[in-house]
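Obj.: predict assembly geometry.
Materials: sequence records (below).
Method: joint structure prediction, all chains together.
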Amino acid sequence: MQTETAEKKGALPELLGRNWIAIFIVLLVVFFSVVARSFFSFDTAQLIFFNGTEVFLLAIAELFVIITGGIDLSVGFVMGFATVVSSKLMVACVALGFSPFWSILAASVVTLLIGLVPGLVNGWLVAYLRVPAFIATFSMLGVTHGISELMTQGIPTKNLPALAGDIGNGSFFYVAPGGAISFFSRPQVARGQTVLAIIPNMVIFAFLFIFLFAFILGKMKFGRHLYAIGGNIDAAIRSGINVKRDLIKAYVISSLFASLAGLSYVMKYITGKPDAGANMLLEAIAAVVIGGASMAGGSGTVGRTILGALVIAILETGLRIIGMQTFMTYILVGVILILAVIIDQVFPNRNR
Amino acid sequence: MIVIFSLGSSGFFDIVNFQNIIHLSTGAFLLAAAELLVVITGGIDLSIGYVYGLSSVLGAKVMQILYAGGAGGAGGAGAMPTAQVIALGCLAALSVSILPGLANGVLVTRFRVPPFIATMGMWGICNGITLFLADGFMPVMGAPSEINAIGNSYFLYIDPSKSISFFAKPSYITQANIRSVLRLVPNSLFLSLLVLLVLGFVLGRTRFGKHTYAIGGSMDAAIRSGINVNRHLVMIYVIASFVSGVAGLFNLFQTGIGNYTPSGANYELMAVAAVVIGGASLTGGKGRILGTAVGVLVLAVLENGLQIIGVSAFYRYIGVGVLLTIAVIIDRAFPDLF
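Observations (raw structure tokens):
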């Protein structure tokens, strides 16, 4: 405590520098609220999380690999692959005469299982054949892209059960004007009355998994091993960590989260297409880096990554609300990504 | 691989097809050469694919505006000769394409941003500016049609029965009998060869090249031996960006329209793939122009061959992925192959 008071002069900028994402988020919200009156509302907040579900999931996918000092370029197309597989399966199950609910459930579970395969192959290539992560996952990008294009033959999948859209675009509970609360389904009300929809299903779906894996990363031995591997792989091997197995697990988790993003996409937009996540690689990596992780590995947390992804999600939704075109998002994400690294170098001890 | 495709289809082993392969992969050659420079220094440049699109769209936009102004002037003071329009468009595109490289270089050296992040940020920025110029997702049209003639013509035309002419189609040839004319050596080949030879010479024979390898081999050793590493790196990124700009401009000449880089086109990743197949190491210090050219050819032949024997284009993505991994595994097993 004494040293802290002694360094009081430098404390304020240091504090600002370390918590710059939080400050930046506040600034963004203030900016958008000033420009567009309707921005500052509960609905918009929900919309930001709803639109950003895929970014959140892909950022976590990328985080697990980046902590180990690797990179996963395939997340966007594994996501596309998952959208194609799951939507095809749903259509097939319905055609076989299953009820929509069971079709969706079965298709989702099978998709998540199939979604482990790209990660397994990536991890095996990186850990056992010592192929650089960049190359292995880029190859996987091509393979998953090719397979999903072959499956769709260039036509996005259609005719999904309507229930998928209901789940994907529904909310956890609704409050009707009289004070009645109903879960999952929108209550029947007179025309003109507003129903308060609270917490989109997909956000709950995403954050269930994110919390689970935040726990695994932060509190379990496996999580500590990942940081050790990223920090110094030789030391990790010498201290008896089964590095190869843990690396494979990291890539499998990455691919699992990419598949989850794919499922979320299918439920929201009721279609599956190979390039669903084509341009999200930049956003996923940007979220992780804005969240303070180092590309060299060994640092980064789920919480900060979510903050990083939140910056991107706010930007995207906010820019859309104030009527900007998508190109502004690209430019701003690029600028913030670079600024994030520069700020982190000025205030290096942000992460611990 | 060439043998397999030749057996698979009679159309493959044919000089016309080989020229097609070269012609269509000019952009890939240039981008891979650009990427190689950066990879040798141990960095990576993810922005080149979008610098490519930026240059193509910007060049087209400038030509479009000037050309339209000239045509509207109806011989008045506003009218500008077509050649001048094209020259100004090229100049604008090329000078702007230097800027992302300059920014990358300064970020990497002065601000110590990892190349991966700096160039990825630049990817987003260039993509955004390109889409802004292209007005959403529209290719830019309206550039003078003469550029097509430059981009797609050949050095030598041989009419089997009669004559040889340079650069221009024999005037009596019409669309109907054009197929009988043997067209040799596309202009694009010259461009590729020129850039590849110059870069190959610079890398292999000059002090600049030696320093590049030295930086990639060991940054510390390079600094201690008195190389001005920062200035050198900035120059490398600028050259890479400039060459990508040339590639983008060439794309404009080839197609006649300014094409933005579609998301998920992954030109920069393809370039990295070619460089790696060509024997370079992503940790730096290794890699040659010749190997990279072979890498591009392998990818181009794979693509073209699969197309000609009638395999769905989608297998191409899978093929490239598998091939790339195999190349790296072979490279690991026999480190002295290249």
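Conclusions so far: The radius of gyration of chain A is 21 Å.
To do: check interface contacts against the pulldown list.
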